[in-house]
Amino acid sequence: MASFEELLKESTTVHGHICAGQVIGVRMSMLALSLIGVQEPKGADRKKLYVIVEIDRCATDAIQSVTGCSLGKRSMKWLDYGIMAATFVNLASGAAVRVTALEEARELSKKYCADITDKYVRQLEAYKIMAEDELFRIEHVSVAIPPEDLPGRPLRRVQCSVCADWVQDKRDVMVNGAILCRNCSGGRYYGPLR
Ligand SMILES: [Zn+2]
Ligand SMILES: [Zn+2]
């Protein structure tokens, strides 16, 4: 596995800027991968790894950059929970850890880089050197990933009986005996132009 500095550089390029979230995301990923026994996330171990992220903010890009997991590969799942946490799963062994970035780390950063007056710069620099247990809470967990959420060919492809769109991966819903897509079953997030 590449060094912290190399991984941070790579994630900063992917993300578009350096920020505290990149430092947190890179360190969180490195820690989690070591705990679940994944050495080469983008090489020999790439099919073993699955990540569930609980927030769509800066650190998520760093997690994607370090792990190689992504929505498009179906090796990353985004749960819109608004929590700076992610669960890393070794699909081969079943080992999984949920890592949460601690809110207290913001305050604690003053202890490390007191000379830096800009809050955001201080956090960024402090997060590079703070101890793992000051930054993160780790839970060893078990995760049941539904087969339809895993990488691979779609387990089901059906046509919506209302709009005729095709729906993959069991995301269709049955309403009064009819197969509907989520848009047609009440989950429509867009509307017609007025
Ligand atoms: Zn950022
Ligand atoms: Zn439909």
Indicate the percent of residues in helices. Answer: 25-40%
In what range is the share of β-strand residues? 15-25%
Mean pLDDT: 96
Q: What is the β-strand count?
A: 9
Please trace the helix and strand order, writing H or E for each element.
HHEHEEEHHHEEEEEH
* Principal-axis shape: globular
Through-space gap between termini: 53 Å
Quickly count the helices: 7
Contiguous runs where pLDDT drops below 50 for at least 5 residues = none
| Strand order across the largest sheet | 2-1-3-4-5
Structural class given helices, strands, pairing?
Answer: alpha+beta
Largest sheet: 5 strands, mixed
Hetero groups: zinc ion
Alpha-carbon Rg, integer: 20 Å
Any overview of this molecule?
- The protein is an alpha+beta fold and 194 residues long.
- It is 35% helix and 20% strand.
- The chain has helices at 4-15, 20-35, 58-67, 104-112, 119-129, 132-135, 183-187, and strands spanning 49-53, 76-78, 85-90, 96-101, 136-141, 157-159, 166-168, 173-175, 178-180.
- The strands form three sheets. It has a five-stranded mixed β-sheet. It has a two-stranded antiparallel ribbon with strand order 6-7.
- A hairpin with a 6-residue loop joins strand 6 (157-159) and strand 7 (166-168).
- It is globular and about 65 Å long.
- The N and C termini lie far apart (53 Å).
- The protein binds zinc ion (2 copies).
- One zinc ion binds at residues 15, 17, 19, 21, 58.
